[in-house]
Amino acid sequence: MEIFNGRAATEEYMSTHSLTFSTPEMTLKKFALWLGDQVNVPEKNKTVPRLMMYINDVDNQTNKSDFLPDTDESFKPSGAVTDMFKEPSQVAASTTCYNCNRLLKAGSKFCPKCGSKQR
Ligand SMILES: [Zn+2]
Question: What digits encode the pLDDT tens for the residues 48-107?
């Protein structure tokens, strides 16, 4: 069975193209055009659309999902924004005043008891 290894194709595209200044529309169009680029197959001495390079011959036992890109569109924060999207309970729930040790809400700037500014 021949399958299109969409995961390898998207990973290759994303590792060789900066998506920073692209809109989703541009990225989508550019990716589709990139897949359709004619590329050389040196061993066969011909050109084929790039997506042919991601056609893998696999046996029927292979789990197809190994080759499918993750198209789950639910938002999963990663990297630098991970903390911003944590459940409040996962963030340090509370701190204590460094001066009088009173329990403070996370992010408090002043202690309501002694009035000292928190770091
Ligand atoms: Zn205090």
Answer: 999 999 988 877 666 666 666 666 767 676 666 666 666 655 455 567 888 898 888 877
Is there a single domain that holds both residue 105 and residue 59? no
Instruction: Give 106 Cα–ligand 1 centroid separation in angstroms.
Output: 14
C-alpha of residue 93 to centroid of ligand 1, in Å: 17
Q: Is residue 73 part of a domain?
A: no
Q: Please count the structural domains in the chain.
A: 2
Pairwise CA distance, residues 22 & 80, whole Å: 20
Domain hosting residue 31, numbered range: 2-68
Whether residue 13 is found in the same domain as residue 63: yes
Dist. CA 110 → ligand 1 center (Å): 8
User: Residue 49 corresponds to which tokens in the numbers above?
Assistant: 């659309």
